[in-house]
C-alpha cells in the first residue's frame, strides 16, 4: 500500500471513528427519555441490543478466509472494561455532585490524546495537546454553565470513581489500538460479556422496572442501536485504524452536540457559555486535525 492510499484509509477510519462521537451525542436525550429504568437494568437491555446488532452485522459482512475466532481472554478483558467504565461512572454520579463527576469522567479525550504518544508509531504534536485542552475548556463551560464549580472533600470517593472511569475508557481505547490485528467483530463479544455482567449487577442491586410507555421502549431501542450499540463498533474501528489524536480531541464534540440536542428538544436552556464552548471545541478539533484538513501544496505549477 502506497503512502497516499494509506493516508486515505487512515483518514476514512478517523471519520468512521468520529461517527461514534456523533452517536454518543444522543446518549443524554435517550437516557433521559427512559425515565425511571434502573441504570444496570438499562445497561443490560441496551447492551443486549448492541450485541444483536453486532451479530447481524457479522453475518452479513464479507469475512476473510483466514480470520480466526476471538480469544476468550480478549473477549473477557474487553467486556469487563466496558462494564467497569459504566459501573464506575454510575458510582461516581451517585457519590459526588453530577457536574463535577461528569467533568472528571470526561477527561478521557484529553488522556487519549496525551497517552497516545506511548503507542508504537504514534507522534504527539503540540497541536494535538492544545486542541485537546481547548476541547476540555469548552466542556468545562458546558458542564458548569460558566458558573464555576467547587471541589467537595466529602465527595472524594465519587471523584475517585470518576477518575477511574476516565482512565478505564482511555485504557480500553488505547489497548484497542495496540491490538489492531484483532478484528472489530471482537466488540460483539465485549458487548455480550457486558450484557451478562450488567444483568448480574441488576439482579443483585436493583429492582426490575419494566418500561411503561412507548417512549421509554423507543428510547431503550434507540440507545441500543446507536450510543450503546453501533457506536462501540465504529469507535473500535477508528481507534485501530484511524488517527487516535484527532479522534480523541474531536470527542469533546459529544457533550456540546448533546447539549444542543437537549436544547432543541426542550430539555435544556440556551446560554452564551454554550456558544463560547462551541467555538472552543470547534477550534480544538480543527487544530488537532490540521494535518488532515489542510490541503497539500502542489509540487509543480
From TrEMBL:
Domain EamA: 14-144, 157-288
Keyword Transmembrane applies: yes
Annotated TM spans: 12-30, 42-60, 72-92, 98-119, 126-144, 156-175, 187-205, 217-235, 247-266, 272-293
Keywords: Membrane, Transmembrane, Transmembrane helix
InterPro entries reported in the protein's UniProt record: EamA_dom, EmrE-like
A family per Pfam: EamA
Protein name: EamA family transporter
Organism name: Ahrensia kielensis
Amino acid at each position: 500500500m502506497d503512502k497516499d492510499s494509506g493516508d486515505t484509509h487512515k483518514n476514512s477510519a478517523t471519520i468512521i471513528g468520529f461517527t461514534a462521537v456523533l452517536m454518543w451525542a444522543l446518549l443524554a436525550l435517550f437516557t433521559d427519555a427512559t425515565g425511571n429504568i434502573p441504570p444496570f437494568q438499562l445497561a443490560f437491555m441496551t447492551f443486549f441490543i448492541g450485541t444483536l446488532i453486532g451479530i447481524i452485522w457479522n453475518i452479513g459482512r464479507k469475512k476473510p478466509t483466514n480470520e480466526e475466532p476471538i480469544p476468550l481472554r480478549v473477549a473477557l478483558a474487553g467486556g469487563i472494561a466496558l462494564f467497569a467504565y459504566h459501573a464506575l461512572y454510575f458510582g461516581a454520579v451517585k457519590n459526588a455532585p453530577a457536574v463535577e463527576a461528569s467533568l472528571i469522567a470526561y477527561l478521557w479525550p484529553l488522556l487519549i490524546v496525551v497517552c497516545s504518544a506511548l503507542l508504537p508509531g504514534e507522534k504527539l504534536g503540540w497541536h494535538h495537546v492544545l486542541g485537546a485542552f481547548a476541547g476540555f475548556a469548552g466542556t468545562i463551560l458546558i458542564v458548569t454553565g460558566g458558573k464555576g464549580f467547587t471541589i467537595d472533600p466529602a465527595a472524594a470517593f465519587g471523584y475517585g470513581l470518576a477518575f477511574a472511569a476516565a482512565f478505564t475508557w482511555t485504557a480500553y481505547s488505547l489497548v484497542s489500538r495496540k491490538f489492531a490485528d484483532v478484528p472489530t467483530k471482537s466488540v460483539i463479544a465485549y458487548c455480550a460479556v457486558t450484557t451478562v455482567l450488567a444483568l448480574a449487577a441488576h439482579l443483585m442491586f436493583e429492582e426490575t422496572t419494566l418500561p411503561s410507555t412507548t417512549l421509554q421502549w423507543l428510547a431503550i431501542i434507540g440507545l441500543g442501536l446507536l450510543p450503546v450499540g453501533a457506536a462501540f463498533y465504529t469507535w473500535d474501528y477508528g481507534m485501530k485504524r484511524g488517527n487516535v489524536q484527532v479522534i480523541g480531541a474531536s470527542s469533546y464534540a459529544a457533550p456540546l452536540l448533546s447539549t444542543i440536542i437537549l436544547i432543541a428538544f426542550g430539555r435544556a436552556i440556551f446560554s452564551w457559555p454554550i456558544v463560547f464552548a462551541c467555538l472552543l471545541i470547534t477550534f480544538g478539533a480543527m487544530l488537532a486535525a490540521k494535518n488532515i484538513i489542510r490541503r497539500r501544496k502542489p509540487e509543480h505549477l
